[in-house]
Amino acid sequence: MDEKIEQLQKMIDESSRIVFFGGAGVSTESGIPDFRSQDGLYQQKWKYPPETIISRSFFDTNPKEFYRFYREKLIIKNAKPNITHFKLAELEQKEKLSAIVTQNIDGLHQKAGSKKVFELHGSTLRNFCMKCGKFYDENFILESQNSPDSLPHCTECNGLVKPDVVLYEEGLDDNVVEGAIQAIKNADMLIIGGTSLVVYPAAGFIRYFTGKNLAMINKTQTQADEMANLVIHQGLGSVFEQIK
To answer: What is the pTM of this model?
Structure first.
């Protein structure tokens, strides 16, 4: 175990209210591409830029193209939690970790066993009719490509079903934001992992942390590096596989 991993382990051992704030880099080792790396979602060719397609105005005006992209790129079937997801769930079970604040929409933290997860940007696993509110899972969205207009329509009222994902131009859920900020405020240690910290307002949440130790784990530099007590420029899996 190298010196930085030992330092991280010592910080974890001394803490009892850890919050993990994570981004796309948490799930890349589960085969889910991140948005901004060289081989990520934003580097691929589509008729429209991905940021345009996953905006609320595009969803409203061009739902067929939205869902074509959404089904192919954002619903990742058969993705499984990786070592980072499982280690975080273990830390929660040991009553070391009090919450996870995630920018991811894949539900893998819950699949690994984590209970207290604040999903800032929603989840592809939840979908709701915009008229009556009936719930549908991700399989319903996938199967709707075989419908006459290739759109997911509610089986009760025929309303359009929308993913419970925060699109560009939409605000974050107030209750989720409040819970995430409160958890960060109460934390004695904040671990930031797998995020470039460029997506706001989520990236601004870390300013609420006033605890003892801030650890930053990311393959590349971030704006939080200078604020952190510990900076590790490695993939999350290679770090968390060494944590007890």
So the answer is: 0.91
- What is the token pair recorded at 15? 């803490």
Domain at 1-32+81-121+167-244, CATH from 1.10.3720.10, 3.40.50.700, 3.40.50.1220, 3.90.800.10? 3.40.50.1220
- Give the CATH fold of the 33-75+123-165 domain: SIR2/SIRT2 'Small Domain' (3.30.1600)
Low-confidence stretches of the chain (pLDDT beneath 70)? 1, 34-46
Taking only the tens place, the pLDDT of each residue in 193-203 is: 999 887 777 77
Q: What are the binding residues?
A: 24, 28, 35-36, 103, 105-106, 121, 129, 132, 154, 157, 195-196, 218
Q: Which contacts of 238-241 are long-range, i.e. CB under 8 A and separated by 24 or more positions?
A: 239/5, 239/8, 240/83, 240/84, 240/87, 240/88, 241/83, 241/87
Residues annotated within a binding site for Zn(2+): 129, 132, 154, 157
